[in-house]
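Re: beginner question about structure tokens

> Can someone show what the tokenized structure looks like for a real chain? I only ever see the sequence side.

Sure, here's an example I had lying around. Input first:
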Amino acid sequence: MPVHVDPRALFVLILCSAMISCREDAQDHETTPSPISTSADIEFDEKDWNRVGVTPDYGDLMRLSMVAIEYSSDDPRIRLLELRNEEGHDRGEGVFERILAVQRDTNGQWKRDGLCEEFLLDGSHAELEYTDGEIQIHHEWYADGTEKLYREYENGVEHGVHRQWYENGNMMFEVKYSDGVEIEGKMWTEDGTPR
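And the corresponding structure tokens:
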């Protein structure tokens, strides 16, 4: 009797197999020094984390083109997830070099809960604060360290001050929000002239 194989299921099986192979290859090639830590342990957000290893579970950080490394803490419901582009790994991400995020297991799902740092390929850097998967603060800098933007949220909704700067350091705009509604704002040109 012929066996019927659903082509979609076969595609998923092939894709998963390729991803596992790619992750294993990336893990095997951790011999060249780089600015990305390859040690067994890491310090992040004033806490020491122990490396568990490569994981297929990205939680709420779906970046399948990056290798995911899990680190444990003294609380099994909290982990640090490091996503990174590795030499020899598909760099299809195109934006991020490395992401570090504290995640909490909430009913079987890993959600960002605490500090998240993003290092972009262009040299810029962002720090984000989350509570139970909801963004609270987004702070970003240009590659030269000049402040780029600062945004406040309450439970994922715009609330408080949002500021953005030009690369020359002059303020681009400042907007105040209350529960997602803009209540006042100011804008400037790149030379600092009010609009």
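Each token stands for a local structural state, so reading them left to right follows the chain. The chain has one domain: 41-187.
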